Structure formats: C-alpha cells, structure tokens
Amino acid sequence: PAPDELSLPSKNSPYVVVDGPSLCILWKPAGWTVSIDRMAGEPDGALDGEISESIGQQLGKGNDMKDWVWQHFGRQHPVARDPRVGHGIVHRLDK
Fold first, then answer.
1. CA gap 87, 37 in Å, rounded
2. Distance (Å, rounded) from C-alpha 28 to C-alpha 75?
3. pTM (2 decimals)?
4. Which of 52, 58, 45, 50 is nearest to 92 (CA)?
5. Residues 6+ apart with CB under 8 A from 38
C-alpha cells in the first residue's frame, strides 16, 4: 500500500515497535505506568508493586504495562507472566 494508506498504531495504546528473536521494543503511551516490582533477593524497603501501584492511582493512571505485556505475550513467553523478573520488562527510556 501507499504510505498514506498505511494505518499507524494509536499513540494511546501500547504497541510493538520492534519484534526481534529475543527482544521486543514497546511503545508506552503517556498515562500508562511501568511498575517496579521487588525482585527476589532485593533488600527490604525496595520499591515494590504495591508502592508503585498506589503512586499510579494517586496520579490517576490506571493502565499498567505489565498487564498489557502479560495479555499480549504471556501465552507464548512465560517470562511475561513472571513478577519475579518484572514480567520481562527490562528498561524504560523516556523522551
């Protein structure tokens, strides 16, 4: 199709930017949160999902990337279902 006929993903919903053999790069729209879960072996007092979730609720942000990742990748990629490894979310880059 011609470039003007291509449908671009919505900037209001997450989507896969790059889908590689061992890595995906995702678009995280404004208003979506990335929770920081306590990893196995981290010291007490580290930020965990409960703290980041309450911060997200205070800011009025109800969409969580870990839920989107679980829903879209969880069936094929067990890491997406595993909170011990942050659901496979490795890093977040901001503009």
1. 9
2. 21
3. 0.63
4. 52
5. 46, 47, 48, 49
Q: Which residues pair with 33 in a beta bridge?
A: 64
Alpha-carbon span 12 to 44, nearest angstrom: 35
Which contiguous run of DSSP H or E holds residue 66?
A: helix 65-73
pLDDT class of 4 with cuts at 50, 70, 90 = low
Q: How far apart are CA 93 and CA 95, in angstroms?
A: 7
Task: Report CA-CA distances (Å) from 64 to 25, 39, 40, 41, 94.
Answer: 16, 18, 21, 24, 16
Closest CA to 89 of 73, 74, 69, 64: 69
DSSP string, 26-56: EE--TTEE---PPPTTPPTTS--HHHHHHHH
- pLDDT by residue (tens digit) across 36-93? 555 444 444 444 444 444 444 444 446 999 999 999 999 999 999 998 888 898 887 7
